[in-house]
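WARN retry 2 of 3 for item q-0093 after timeout on previous attempt; input resubmitted unchanged.
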Amino acid sequence: MDIYQHFRKEEHSFIDQVISWREDVALKYQRRLSDFLDPREQMIVKAVMGNDADLIYQLEGGAEDSERKRAVIAPDYEQIDKEDFQLTLLQADYPVKFVALEHRDVLGAFMSLGIRREKIGDVVVKDGTIQLTAASEISDYIKMNLTGIKRSTVEFKDVPWTERIASDETWTKKETTVSSLRLDVIVKEIYGMSRKKAGLFIEGGHVKVNFRTVEDGAFSLEAGDLISLKGKGRSRLDEVTGQTKKEKYKIITARLN
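OK item q-0093 returned
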């Protein structure tokens, strides 16, 4: 299928999975609900689904600005509602005066319970409150078993979506040109360092692309890729808008403030 040529080899297995979902819905006339997908996976779902006349699909993570979302694929004669995504908003408070919690502390606590990252959507840690979007099928398990994070006792409860806390995250965009779309070149440009230093960070396992560690500086980035550099935050390659006469790439990047 031609779609494979537009994506990386390591993404082919996920493409196969989405194709399998699509074919299963078309054959059985039963809708399919995915786990939470990162932005790159959402892009693949959109590409695979295309403009299929017999099927519809939607992505939902609880709010329009949600980063991680679940997908529902259904026959075209059905209607997809927010309730169909089986999302639960959970909240817990912690004593901010006595313990400092970060996003990674909360995710680490989930991982220690054996909960797969794909079952958790966006997580907000703000002013002594933790809010997270969870797959409804594991919300009761979370409430029963996740009772402590670091040195803090927590108790998660369901809260209505009207009480959702918006993230303070803001992204600063920048238009620039680069000699190539190699990972070390883009990291150098976004984080303002030498290419050699960028390479050392990458080879040391401190850089992730789409939530997966990449240790090859020659790894080629594409529009929509999320980058994270340990200790220096997250960024994105938003767009590749063209090339200059000197064959440099014109790009738009974004960095999380």
